[in-house]
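Regression test case RT-17, inverse folding.

Input:
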């Protein structure tokens, strides 16, 4: 779709998108998210910075995961659309690829993300592990989803590489922590 007659405005953290005199929706957004949404609405394929991606990776159940709503925003679709695509292909998403947060995990996550507005969420969000994010590219086959997935996979690879390169430092830190714990317990 060629979007030439498009108006996008950010007013008091509400994003208003109007295409050809048709008001699409109002969204709660932060200023850093505005550029992603604006360029998505204009039909552009954009490069999303690593910082934006890193801000959306969380550590839950000892795994690096991304929220359904964050992935939907990055892919330029509604969360509902992303979750519908997943539910139509549920066999592709075993529990080690995707899981739903518990209320306790959700409350903890909300307390960590103080800048976000969670609005009227009616059900607990789903989160996707690295493998789940990779699998999303097979169910969301848009150019933008493919491009964003490639960026996310490259970021996960760099993160893993950094951890492996600094494994010796982690082992030394663990050794020091163990000694410290022994000393304080005496």
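Golden output:
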């Amino acid at each position: 779709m060629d979007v030439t007659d498009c108006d996008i405005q950010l007013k008091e953290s509400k994003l208003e998108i109007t295409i050809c005199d048709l008001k699409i929706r109002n969204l709660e957004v932060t200023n850093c998210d505005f550029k992603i949404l604006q360029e998505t609405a204009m039909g552009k394929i954009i490069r999303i910075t690593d910082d934006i991606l890193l801000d959306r990776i969380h550590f839950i159940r000892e795994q690096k995961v991304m929220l359904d709503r964050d992935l939907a925003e990055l892919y330029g679709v509604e969360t509902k659309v992303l979750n519908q695509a997943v539910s139509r292909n549920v066999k592709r998403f075993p529990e080690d690829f995707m899981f739903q947060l518990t209320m306790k995990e959700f409350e903890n996550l909300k307390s960590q993300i103080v800048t976000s507005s969670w609005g009227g969420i009616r059900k607990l969000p789903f989160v996707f592990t690295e493998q789940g994010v990779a699998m999303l590219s097979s169910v969301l086959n848009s150019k933008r989803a493919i491009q964003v997935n490639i960026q996310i996979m490259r970021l996960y690879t760099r993160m893993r590489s950094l951890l492996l390169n600094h494994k010796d430092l982690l082992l030394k830190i663990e050794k020091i922590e163990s000694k410290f714990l022994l000393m304080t317990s005496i």
